[in-house]
Structure formats: C-alpha cells, structure tokens
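Give me structure tokens for this 52-residue protein.
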Amino acid sequence: MPQMCERRWGRVIQVGGGLALQPMNLQPHYNASLAARHNLALSLARDLKGSV
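Here you go.
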C-alpha cells in the first residue's frame, strides 16, 4: 500500500465467492477466513477512498 500511495496509482484485487456473506454449516474456520478477507477489502477501500 505505501508504494501505491507514493505512486498515486494501484489496484487491490481480491477474488472470492459468497461464503463470506452466506456461510455454510461446515468448516466454520474457512467461513471465518473468508469473512475476514471480505472485511479487509472493505476496510482498505474505505481507508484509501479519495487517496488516488
């Protein structure tokens, strides 16, 4: 992130499915990791909004 902010250009791309928002009843640890990744993307987007 610091390098992208210095260049004032960059993209963060995350690929995921819907299990972060609609978890299945198996593998709760996997569902939690997907939700964490989803929330990281949202937090970054909000934090960096308008910086480029």
